[in-house]
């Protein structure tokens, strides 16, 4: 029975997210509660129409929409240490309430899925949200094309960083280049750097696709087996992966909108085989390239 | 005898103190009032320090004697002999009696104590009295506790060379809000301000969090998450908590607690040794009290010895012609108390289940409290947790009070340059809180083990057409079926519900628990039309009921029947 009421009282907290950081006396609290009454009502009826200025649970906890529960936990604890009433006094009460609610929902897979549906646009607008999840920032106006480094192919020669140091940066940990600022240098420098790339791994892509590509190229922790541990994994072909990711997102959005439980489109055996072959081929190519490069490097020494 | 709390210090001392209090916030002390023993600790600027009384004791017996004109407690008083405690003049086990009504089985069991506990079985505070010069002088558990706390406060004040006002107290998990208000009242009588009431195992969890953080620092590690299971069994209560800790934050996952402890072991053994003990206990003559006292001391002694040796010889002359000569071994002891140990096991299992944690995922198993010395208790904890050994880094008797002192420093806003106070406990509610609805059922609004601070709202509606009033009756507890199985916290009436067919008006009830565990209930009838004048919503701080809360619900039911009932709103699809 209490569960049946969940829908009514589940997500009222983010409504009042604007209040954090202020000091209130208990009497103000009461006043505020009275206001909240009416707010909760509109909130629960217009869950879908939530305006963008509000903080959703992910923003509240400062985590990505796709964060693992471990990351959410860490973020939650960090914020609790700052805002818990034991530390921040009574003024932390409201904010901690929101944190607790957000944490509870995001830590439970079923509640999280429901919540994702209710905030909908976060994942649907994923690819349109230019500043949201990508790495690179924009210098100047948004343009239709953006630079993207396929880090799978990059050999870490640093030529692009040398030619356009405001645009490209070197990820020393992964040993590959990536775009730091879109159009950080003038077009000529950028052209030179693209041409200078020995493996042609710098691409002009549609700027709408950029966040997804940049997101997918980020290595994701891989589940480990045995003593070798997890390691990191990224899609073999980021462009193909981005396409299927977008497709999946769209499908998920439409599915969830219609409240149907239709599962994702199944791959036909032929498709699966083709995909497997393609990825094998890409893998082989990459390997031989690496091998050649290594041989050359040894010879040079 | 304790120093009076109002001793006037010399002028120079006074000004010095004012100066220091203006630059440093007062550090709240931690107090662990146990059923049998009590201790005080404080953060001394670099670590937790346990305070000692004038006789250099860290652990002080929790009792108050009414022998002389002025009552004195176990903090300063020197017992000439253990038997003095059992002559009828001393009140102890206050923690088991406080805030309980005389229909409570725990109070009934306390009738075997060597002082007067009278029960009328009508749901009011039991009558307790101490024997002073052959007269039963009445007192209350709160009063006895307050007398004891006054002594503690004076002792801490002398040790710390400053007046002590703020305290963090540890409490059993199973304490309801009514009992908590009684503890707070006892503290207020003793001139103490309660900053936090911490369930005992969560205090231990905080100490564990600090230790883990220090280990992580020493290993230069990032400090990954550690899951700890804390089993705390003292003389009066048995509590279990599961905590997840990382980076100094102790996040309580679940709590479970019940009223079983060393006292039950003791009473079971007394009944075992003297089968007709009940008749002895029921009459409260001078010689009977002496006999109870002798039996109690002998049994207690035997149980202590059994923790270290396999069998023990009991030789006691109860003075009224009955003698006990018996060799008691561990096996017999464990057999007599089988039910108590089974209850402990089920408590651990329940807590793990509530925390949604598999026993294999627990990193450390911590057993504290006086009963953790009993081999059987150690065994059962290890067995249930499938472990070979317990966590070693803690003194079982000092862990709770040390945790309370840490919380006292943290909640007083003290910071430590070395990061030793970079701590936080995220508490959960030990009991569900809800209202009576759906025809006398208990509808929980805040479930058990909800993270605090918590706020939950639920919408209810009327059961009659044109019902303009509704009774909000707030309960705390676990009884799901019948609201009366739970503890009544308070009640109030919502008036001015707009006239409408049944099921149409919306009455929202919101429960808010803040970090210091204060419960506020907000309720209001919602108005849809703009032409209707809105009624102010209600805010009620609970619990509001005092003595005799057992009857209130009955009386309300008699007076109102079901005319002001509520039902939950079903989900609209």
Automatic annotation (TrEMBL), chain A:
<dbReference type="InterPro" id="IPR036869">
    <property type="entry name" value="J_dom_sf"/>
</dbReference>
<feature type="compositionally biased region" description="Polar residues">
    <location>
        <begin position="249"/>
        <end position="261"/>
    </location>
</feature>
<dbReference type="Pfam" id="PF00226">
    <property type="entry name" value="DnaJ"/>
</dbReference>
<protein>
    <submittedName>
        <fullName>DnaJ domain-containing protein</fullName>
    </submittedName>
</protein>
<dbReference type="InterPro" id="IPR001623">
    <property type="entry name" value="DnaJ_domain"/>
</dbReference>
<dbReference type="Pfam" id="PF13370">
    <property type="entry name" value="Fer4_13"/>
</dbReference>
<feature type="region of interest" description="Disordered">
    <location>
        <begin position="249"/>
        <end position="278"/>
    </location>
</feature>
<dbReference type="InterPro" id="IPR017896">
    <property type="entry name" value="4Fe4S_Fe-S-bd"/>
</dbReference>
<feature type="domain" description="J">
    <location>
        <begin position="56"/>
        <end position="119"/>
    </location>
</feature>
<feature type="domain" description="4Fe-4S ferredoxin-type">
    <location>
        <begin position="145"/>
        <end position="173"/>
    </location>
</feature>
TrEMBL record, chain B:
<keyword id="KW-0547">Nucleotide-binding</keyword>
<keyword id="KW-0346">Stress response</keyword>
<dbReference type="InterPro" id="IPR043129">
    <property type="entry name" value="ATPase_NBD"/>
</dbReference>
<comment type="similarity">
    <text>Belongs to the heat shock protein 70 family.</text>
</comment>
<keyword id="KW-0067">ATP-binding</keyword>
<dbReference type="InterPro" id="IPR029047">
    <property type="entry name" value="HSP70_peptide-bd_sf"/>
</dbReference>
<dbReference type="InterPro" id="IPR013126">
    <property type="entry name" value="Hsp_70_fam"/>
</dbReference>
<dbReference type="GO" id="GO:0140662">
    <property type="term" value="F:ATP-dependent protein folding chaperone"/>
</dbReference>
<protein>
    <submittedName>
        <fullName>Heat shock protein 70 family</fullName>
    </submittedName>
</protein>
<feature type="region of interest" description="Disordered">
    <location>
        <begin position="1"/>
        <end position="23"/>
    </location>
</feature>
<dbReference type="Pfam" id="PF00012">
    <property type="entry name" value="HSP70"/>
</dbReference>
<dbReference type="GO" id="GO:0005524">
    <property type="term" value="F:ATP binding"/>
</dbReference>
